[in-house]
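Limitations

Structures in this collection are predictions, not experimental determinations, and the ligand pose is part of the prediction. Treat each record accordingly. The example that follows, with zinc ion as the small molecule, is included so readers can see exactly what is and is not provided: the inputs are given verbatim, and the output is the predicted complex.
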Amino acid sequence: MQFMPLCEKMGKPAIHWENACGKPDASAGILFSGSMPSKAIRLFKIMNISCVGLSTFFRHQRKYLEPTIISYWEAEQANLFDVLRFEDEGLVLSGDGRSDSPGHCAKYGSFTVIEQRLNKVLDIQLVQSNEVKSSTWCEFEGLKRTIDHLDSEDLVVSALITDRHRQNGKWIREECPEINHMFDVWHVSKAIGKKLDKIALLKDCEDIALWKPSIINHLYWSAGSTPNGDGALIVAKWESVMFHVQNQHINHPNLVFPECDHGPLNAQARDKEWLTPNTKATVKLEGLLMAKYLLKDIAKLSTEYQTSGLEAFHSLVLMFAPKHTGFSYFGMTCRLYLAGLHYNENSDRLQALCSDGRSQYNIRFPKFKKGGHTVRVVKTKPTYDYTFTLMKRLLESYRESPLALNQSMNILRANAPGPLASAFDQPNKAEAIARHTTRFR
Ligand SMILES: [Zn+2]
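Predicted complex:
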């Protein structure tokens, strides 16, 4: 790309992207790459490259880009459904909700499911907060729509792994008893970790902080070492932790799992003291780890699949739809679908290799580890073939009939929820401005 000298800036722009008939190529490039239009257009202006204006971008987005993205997502989804429809054991899904803004006043909530054995995003449901009682109901509504959608496609869900959202759990238990509903270990461990941190702040309970990593590891081990998902055995293994922290490793009064599974312990390598029975720290710890509601949830821990793919997907959504930016209903839908297309194309990336053929890793210092590190596998670079397919589909449909492309969205548009502001009393604009200026005069 050749830049123009500054003195020529007022002359003809260097590159014309939008041709005489107004083809939406430049607008498509901005949206398909997940860029924010105002910033991208400003970038082109600074570089003196001709580009569409903001209002043209949004016109292109509404009339041509949204139908292209939605039809491509639906086609890709149909391919996945065809593969899964004949799966004898039914679908094994992980599902989680996402709010479009921090706090409890989100405009949108979305619910996404990933088929765990394929590691592909299978369904994404966007719910606008005025479609339900309040924004906190969006996740629940999204879950119900996903299950209905899969059901309408003759797909059978055999297992679903989620966080411990009570409303979702109750609904699945009552309405879909055939689904084996399990909890993601990370979500449970996060909740336990937070409560352990609180106990460790109390007087005479400081040692609990040293025990936290072992307790969390034990939770993962209790689930991971029980691949048949036997809830009673997972709970029995978990309960042994209270004996272990008090230096009692055999003869636990638990017939299912009567002794610790570890080998001989190395006293010199110990970095913490055993807890003393009947002290404040031990009583508090037991109250937390052996709480009835927790044991009930631990019996339902997922032993094989977790929701980490969904956490990765939600991080990816942030690249396409940052939380500080507001989007129209279909604008948000399309950005979620773009994230889904990106995830599905790149979900099977292999580990990258160094020049000498060794596997690549890197060291990270995540904030939650408070100075501790984690080792991460470095994957090969992501690919973006879906953007080229989208562009091809867009230009083919546009060449055939821009009108038909625009009208292909008519039914979806008719059924879409109205903007949030449509429920509010609309003030007379002139009167509102007059009141505002009087107040500040
Ligand atoms: Zn032990």
